[in-house]
Each structure stands twice: as structure tokens, then as C-alpha cells.
Amino acid sequence: MYPYLEVFGRAIPMYYLSAIVGLVFAMGLALFRRRAERFHTGTEDIVLMVLLAVIGALLGSKVFQLVGVIIRDGQTVGFWTLEHWKSLIPGVGVFYGGLIGGFIAVLIYIRKNKLDFWEIADILVPCVLLFCTFGRLGCFFAGCCYGRAADWGIMPRHGVEPLIPVQLFEAGFTFLTMAAMLIFRPERKRPGVLLPLYILIYAVGRFILEFFRGDMQRGVYLLSTSQWISLLMIPAGIFLLVLRNRALSKGQRDSSL
Fold it and tell me: Mean pLDDT: which of 11-25, 74-88, 184-198, 213-227 is highest?
């Protein structure tokens, strides 16, 4: 599509530009929510956690990319060569790996500074969705993570038949999920509920969207790697949702005694 934007004679990758813009907006949303919703977490903590989440996401996405290469190819010939590792640098990695890596980075910070995990989750979950929206827009411009060929597709790739703009589908999906959370604000009545809702909703949506992807060679055993991960995330989301609701119900009963 439009992989590069030329500025003053220099070609800037659209994916990285979209990621930077998404990071700025996500940071702004986190700080706005912290102030508007009167969360107790400090501004400095929010900024540091967002930056750590980005670092963790970059590392996690690359780790999952490496694992995916091993699973897909079934062998590690040339895996440790310098050329192989250089070939992985330009790629954007695996989203689920980035999600897990960012989560681990933030969790370490929370535990070290003894912050409220569920409050942090309520602050950052909409920001993650906003960042993902810009990330998928970047994928659309770059032409990666493309959809299957279809007559009603709108995205040409290398001059071949039109492809389904699945990147735009996912961008719309994450944006609408974020908007719904910001409008209905379920965390006001059920603090800490946004994280399990996010895990559950995104996993279901991602599982469905994967059927429209055209790069299904990423998968093994009939489904893509992301679909297998989604199948694990769905029960995890349900478990966290039930666990959190039980904790909140128990807290309400105890406070009424």
C-alpha cells in the first residue's frame, strides 16, 4: 500500500510512524484517565509503565516471532546465524508476544512499587486498545498482516488480485471496543473488570478475524498460531472475570457486616 512516507527526501516507514503516533495518543489517554477518573496512581508511574510496556512488547513480539519460526519450519538450521537474526529485525513481530511481554514488564513494575494491579489495568486497557488501533493502521499502510484474496477486497498487494483489508477490520474492532469501555465505564461499578473483559473480547475477535487472513502459513494444525493462543486466552479471560467478580462480591459482603 503506502509503506513509506517521504519527508524532506527521507523515507519514513509508515508502520513505525503509526506506532509512534499511537504511543503518543495512548500516553495521553492514560494520563487523562488517571486525572478524570481520579485514580490514585501517580503521573510518573503511568509514564514509566507505558514506556516499560513498549519495551516489553518489543521484546515479547520478537521472542514469539522466533518461536513461531521454529514451530513453522520444524528445524533450527541456520537459526543462530547472524544473517537469520538480521532478517528478523525489520519485522514487527507477533502481537500476542508483544501483549504478554508488555504485561510482564508492567507487572514487574507494579510488584516492585507495590501498586494496585487492578487499578493500573483499568487505566491502561483502553490505552492498549488505542495503541493496537494505530498499529493495525500501520499494518494496512505497510501491506503486512494482509487478508485473503476476494472480489470485494480493496487492498492490492504487489499488483495481484484485491485482498480483504483485515487490518482495517481489526483496527475498527479494537477502536470500537475501546470506545465502548470509555462510554459505559464498567470499572466504575466493578473495579478491575476491564482486563478480563479485554482478554475475552479480543481473543474471540482475533480468532474470528484470523479466518480472513491471507498469511495463514503462520499457523500449524489447521489453525493459525494466533488462533491457538486465542483458544487459550478465552478461558483465561473467563476465569479472571469470574475470579474478579467473586472478589468484589466478597468485599461487598464483608463491608456490609
Answer: 184-198
Domain assignment of residue 149, given as a range: 4-185
Query: Is 198 a domain residue?
Result: no
Q: Note whether 113 and 187 are within 8 A (CB).
A: no
Continuous segment of H or E residues that includes residue 12: strand 10-13
Cell of 207: 480468532
Domain count, the chain: 1
Query: What CA–CA distance (Å, rounded) separates 84 from 79?
Result: 6
CA angle 43, 38, 133 (to 5 degrees): 70
pLDDT at 257: 46
Residue 28 lies in a domain: yes
What ranges in 89-193 are assigned the alpha helix state H?
95-113, 117-142, 166-184
Is residue 235 one of the residues assigned to a domain? no
Q: Which of 171, 151, 134 is nearest to 23 (CA)?
A: 134
6 pLDDT above the threshold of 90: no
Asked if residue 89 is part of any domain, the answer here is yes
Distance CA 54, CA 151 (A): 37
Predicted pLDDT at 82:
57
Are the CB atoms for 145 and 167 separated by under 8 Å?
Answer: yes
Q: Coil, strand, or helix at residue 190?
A: coil
Indicate the Cα dihedral angle 109, 114, 119, 125, nearest 10°. 10
Choose the most confident range, by mean pLDDT, from 13-22, 94-103, 170-179.
Answer: 170-179
pLDDT value, residue 216: 56
Instruction: Compute the distance between CA of residue 65 and CA of residue 95 in angstroms, rounded to an integer.
Output: 9
Structural contact between residues 165 and 155, judged by C-beta atoms closer than 8 angstroms: yes
Model confidence at 122: pLDDT above 60: yes
Q: In sequence order, what are the beta bridge partners of 149?
A: 163
